[in-house]
Structures are given as C-alpha cells and as structure tokens.
Amino acid sequence: MTTSESGEETITESGGASNADAAGATPKGPHTHAIHTSLKRGMEARHLQMISLGGVIGTGLFLSSGYTIHQAGPIGTILAYAIGAVIVYLVMLTLGELSVAMPVTGSFHVYADKFIGPATGFVVAIQYWLTWTVALGSEFTAAGLLMQRWFPGTPTWIWSAACIILIFTSNALSVRFFAETEFWFASIKVVAICAFILIGGLAIFGVLPVHGYDSAPLFHNLVKDGIFPNGFMPVFATILTVNFAFSGTELIGVTAGETRNPEVAVPKAIHTTLWRLVLFFIGSIVVMSALIPWQDAGVDESPFVLVFNSIGLPFAGDIMNFVVLTAVLSAANSGLYATTRMVWSLGHERMIPVWFAKTNRRGVPMLALCASMAGGLLALLSSVVAASTVYLVLVGISGLSAVVVWIAIAYCQIVFRKRWIAEGHTVDELKYRTPGYPWTSWAAFILCTVSFFLVFFDVEQRFALIAELIFLAACYGIYFLRQRIERNRKVDVVDVPDDKPWVAKN
Length: 506
Hints:
It is found in: Membrane. The structure is a single chain. By secondary structure, this protein is mainly alpha-helical. It is built from 18 helices and 2 strands. The chain has a two-stranded antiparallel sheet. The model is unreliable at 1-37 and 500-506 (pLDDT under 50).
C-alpha cells in the first residue's frame, strides 16, 4: 500500500494480493481505492441497492405496463414477470459469487476475458456499453418531452440539454456524489410505487371510492375474461419483454469495484433488489389489473394516471409526470455511470488506449466519461435524424445485448468455480457462494440462452435478433483484426500468475 500525492491510500499493482483480497476482503476507510485501480470505493450498501433499482424501474413500468397488460391479460402478465424475475435472480446469484471473489469495476468483460477468452471479453464490454449508450439517447429525448407539460412554449432541446448537463455533473464530481444523486432519484420512484400500491390496495378493498364501482372491486377484473384472454403466445412475447425490463440489475457487478465491503454489500444488494423488483412490478400490475379492465389498461395513457384519476387523486397527471421525469433522470444517471466504467475498464485492460483509464484526483475517469457522453449524444442525434434506420438498428441490438451479458455471466461463474477447485482451493474459502451450484448456474445459462434464440419466433422482435447476431460477428471481427495488427508490433507482455486473475494483463 502506498500513499498518493494527495495523501490518499492506494493499492498498487506491484503489491501482493492474497486469496482473501480476491474474495473481496478490501481495505476500509473513506479514501480507500479499489483493488489495482485508482477508482475510489465510495459506495455503500444502500447506494448499491438503489442504483440497481434505478437502472431497472423506468418508463417501462410507469408508461408501458398498461400496454403489456392489454396484450397478455392480467394473469399472463403476472406470470411473465414472475418467470422473468426467476431468470434474473438466477443470473444475479451467479454474479454475486464472481463480484465478491473479484470485485473489479466493469466486471463483466473482465470475467469473460479470464474465463471464456479475451475476444468474448471485448465483445461483452462493447455489448453492454451500447445497451446503455442507446438508453442515454432516448432518456435525454424523453426528459425534454416531459418538460413540455409544464413549459409548452419552450423548445424541447433546451430541457434535453439541461438534463445532459445535470447528469454529466452528477457523474463528474465524484463516485460518492453520483451514488447519492442516484439514491435520491431512485428513492422518489420507490416512494411513488409504494404509494400507488398502498392507495390502490385501499381502493381494491373498498376503503377508498373508485369511479365506476358501487362496491369493492376486489380482484374480479383479473379473471373475468379467462386466464389468457388473448391466448398464450402474447404471454411468451411478454416474457421476452420482461427480460429487457429487468436489465439493469447487473449494475451491481459494475459497481462492485467501487463499493466498500463488497463481500457484505453485494450479496445483500442482490437479494433485496430482486424481491423489491418483484414486489414493485407484480404489485403494481395487480393493482392496475384489479382497478382497470385489461382492455383499457393504459393503452393511451399511463395506467398510474388512470388509477389515480379513478380514485379522485388531485393533480394525478402532474404527479406522475414528475415521477416519470425522475425515472428518466435516474436511468440516464445509471446509464452514464455504466458506460463510463465499461470504457474505463477497456482502457485498464489495454483493449483500447490506456489513457481512457486515467482518473483525476477525485477518482473519476473523466476521459472515459466524456467518451461515454459523446456516445449518448450520438445516439440522441441518430434518434432525431435517422430514427427509422440507424437508431432502429441500435435499439434492436441493445435490446438483446443485456441477455448476451447474462449468458456470459452465468457461464463465467461455472468456469470460475471449476478452476477455483482445480487450483486447490475449497468452496469454504469463498466469501459468497452461489446457492445450489451447479444447478443454479446451468439453469441461468440455459434459460437465458433459450430466451435469446426464441426471439426468432416473435415476428415483431425477429429483426432485433438478426441485427444482434450481425453485430456480434462484427465485434469479434474487429477484435481479431486488431489482434492481427498488434502481432505485427513488438509488445511487452507481463505474465500474470493464474492465482491472481484480477490483475490486469499489460
């Protein structure tokens, strides 16, 4: 351990790291840096939980959930979200073991590099970077449009620009400032959903009056037209959509390298985040379906607004506009953080120029941050000038990219555990172990792989699968072309001991 010029303690790459370090035993203190990086460990367990929630709970729940109910029916939608939650939970259990054993920032591609191959590591990083980059463009646009409700006379781009400045500043000041900002953004969403479920529950049981009902509505609307009113196929399509809706929970892995005591914070965040998501998503859908006929559930307006209006809550539209705006800002905040850390990690692993890994005295990788914001701005530009071509392709690719990352996570954990045992370690040495290994890990891998390829049978999403497969091939092609160019140069290679997979290869 050395001391930097600013007086902060830093772990250097030349310093030895024990197996305890690999298992997540990290130094403690307000100025402690992440292992072998100059990124600061400024996040706590509460930040980790809210960041993960913030990455998932967005406009999909507040605006599009009614349309999902309209397509699959109440019971079909609940079933789809339950199945999707199981798949995500299995993936998160495998990610937990990896993140605690090797708490590195930008973890997905580092794991894929070590346990699958450097080409796959590069592809996974690019996939995840693109997922959030495209999301950034759409969130900036949405923020500008939402502000039109209160300021109809102002240009949309002004509010989009204000959103861009706000989110960039949140990420640029420090990881602690980002975490606090995201904590409060996500908290507003959580409070709104809890209030919705509580008020809706009172209305369901007749405590509050509901327009159109003389008595308590109860749960008659859920089954009055049958369990699957439109057949089972819409339920299948909804399961695919749910996988995309739950993407963002894996941010827990991205933040592990900047989290204090990851062996405690990461497992706690995984368990609490998943059950909260199930409660929030399924609870909201039950309330919507019970109070609004499924045929009318949010087809033209947010189901949250419909429910609040039916109960007679004043200013329902303005309240939900504020909540949705918060959701947009939260998603953009998490998205910029995720893309920045992927760019930083690629630089740290020497897959792109190493100066992208350089951080300032606050531990913020400013060059990576600027590059990521530039990517978000390009996505925003493409959504304006090429919405039916370039942007449509980007959206199609990003939709399936999260599932590709999940597949890689599950497989990496399987290989990691095998190597851990083969190297003479015991399972008891792991600070956190995936429950039910290997069944849990293989179930996560198989279910994610099946859901990826079954997209082909959904006509509306078939384009996304084709675009994703082409993009995957292109990423691998770029990597191998780069490797061929590198082989023609003299590059010094530092051998890394097999028992220290967390050390970057120079």
